[in-house]
Amino acid sequence: SMPGLVRIMEGTTTYAPAGRWSFFRRLLSSNLPNPGKFEDVNAEAKKIFQIDTFEGIRMEYQRGLNNSFGVSHVAHLASSPESPATYEFSANFSQDKHLLLSRTSPSNGDNTVLAQYIYSASPNLTMRVQSQLSKVPHQSSAVVQVDYKGSDWFGQAKMGSFAQWGLSYMQSVTRNLSLGLDYTYLGRPPYNNPPMCVQTGALRYTNDRLAFVAQLVSSGQLQAAYVQRVRDNLSFGTELVVNLADRSSQCSVGYEYSSAAGSFKTNLTTDGKVTSCIEKPLGETTMLTLCAELDHGKQTSKYGL
Description:
Layout: E1 5-7, E2 15-17, H1 18-28, H2 43-49, E3 57-64, E4 69-77, E5 86-95, E6 98-104, E7 113-120, E8 125-133, E9 141-149, E10 153-160, E11 164-172, E12 177-186, E13 196-206, E14 210-217, E15 221-231, E16 234-243, E17 248-259, E18 262-269, E19 273-281, E20 287-295, E21 300-304
Antiparallel strand pairs: 1-2, 3-4, 4-5, 5-6, 6-7, 7-8, 8-9, 9-10, 10-11, 11-12, 12-13, 13-14, 14-15, 15-16, 16-17, 17-18, 18-19, 19-20, 20-21
């Protein structure tokens, strides 16, 4: 055979440069890590700065009826007379590649039903359908979403009610650096609002001890977050949000500590809001959660158990 050439059709004399095929093999196969979903680009900072707080007493009970089916009950007793007590019922079914989640809150009066069906077609391809049914006008909706996990990239496409569709893509550039884009369009928003379109670009840098994320939204908002893992069970973080339109900004600092006895996380913002949450396991099936939110700027507070 001729040097530098490779046969591409057996029994013929058609040849192609070997370098061309090695280029396509390198293009389709990569040893870079998968960057994950675009919506999870800021996962480390969300754990510290997006604490789920509530007011009053909330009790949640989960029970598995068999290996595939389970139910849960959530009762919330608010401390304020203006906030009535609520009750939620959930039923979940899982078998092989299928997962069905549902939740309803009959105490609200509108009997809203939330449902989600997830089908894992392969280790790389996932399809899901989310729907919400409500008696309130413009509150019923449905969204179909497809996720594909490549070797060093992640793509997502969705289409739903109100002429909604969106695309997102994350790509690993190096072993530590990844870039992403998200595009969302809402053609017929509820309540006769005008169409809206939002584009977001993201940069993410991570290693074994830190995570840095920067995001720029087409509406003029710039967000940057940095999380440093000091020890295996202790992380510190800071977050900066700048509105380029009116030149306003907000900075937050916080930390998260976890151990076998429980976990504690808290954050403080420059507008005077302090949010904290303690989670302590009392047994294999029991968890105690205490949360508090103090807003010194608005002179308000709320506590939950």
